[in-house]
Each structure stands twice: as structure tokens, then as C-alpha cells.
Amino acid sequence: MFFFQPFNCGGSARHLPVPLPPEFANGPLVLDIVQLSEYAGENVGSKRHSETVYRKGLPWNIMAKFNTKKDSTEKWLDFYLQCAAPKEVSSVWQRFKLSLKMNGTKDWTGKFSDVVFTNKLDAWGFYTFISFAELMIPSKGLYDEYGDKVTLAIDFTADETENCQNLKDKSVLES
């Protein structure tokens, strides 16, 4: 079901379809990378995306990809939070707190403020977050060897968007 939510960014109001419910400000974003060993063998840069989750009316997801560092063949997992806002939304300043969990264990927490997501820079995250070799170490418990998968999850809480007026819960038109 789609409702139309008015966006007023940069002085021009537009009505864009937004799947409801956008009012939820927090909750998990989850990406299961299944057949991890096969995925790691693919071309460097191939991406995996989580399902899109709406926070404060904007679409968010996790993007992961394997990469290599300069002058190295070792593979690393890149990990990003993406805001796939419609192109009519020029930019979003966002404050958020996230906890990274891999296969159910809380591994890392950080609080970030004034992160800018734009049409051209829609992702924020960690280039070379963890090496593939480290990810596969059984004693770390990050990799589910029986299911050949790793689960990346972010407990993501979105604050009110700062530069877009009318992106608040009350602006959702219920007709």
C-alpha cells in the first residue's frame, strides 16, 4: 500500500509515493549473505543489499561487498548504511546510533552525527571493514559454517531529518 507524503526540500514541494509505515524510527536492518564462500569467489566489487526498511519516511538498507586494498589481493568485506532517498530529495543530514551485530553477537557500537546522504553520496560505512580471512576464523563465531552464511545487522535509530521540512510522521496523508 502506498500513500503520498509531501516533501519540501529546497523550496519546491513534491508528492512522492512512500510505502507505510514510515513512522517507525528504530529497529534492525538485516542482511544475510548466504553461500558466503561462493560469494567471496565472485568478482571484487559485487554487492549484496538488505531489504529496504523505512525510517522517518526515508528508505534505508545495508549494502555489503568484497573489495581489495591497494597493492594486495586479500579480500575485505565493505559494509555500508545506505539511504536510497528519491532523487527529488537533494540531501539528508542525519544523526544516528548503530550497533553492528554479526550472527547475533554485539561486536561494535558507534554514535554518529551530521552524516550527510545525498543523491551522489548515498552510503556511509566502512571500507575494508573486516578481512575475509578474519571473518572465516571459527573461534570468532562470525561465520555460520553449516549454513555458509554471515548475518550483518544494524540496530538503527533515525533522528528527525534536518534539512527537509514535512518529513515528519504527521505529514503522511491518509487518503
UniProtKB/TrEMBL annotation:
Domain MATH positions: 26-156
SUPFAM superfamilies: TRAF domain-like (SSF49599)
Cited InterPro entries: MATH/TRAF_dom, TRAF-like
Protein name according to UniProt: MATH domain-containing protein
Naturally occurring in which organism (per UniProt): Heterodera trifolii
Classification of source organism: Eukaryota, Metazoa, Ecdysozoa, Nematoda, Chromadorea
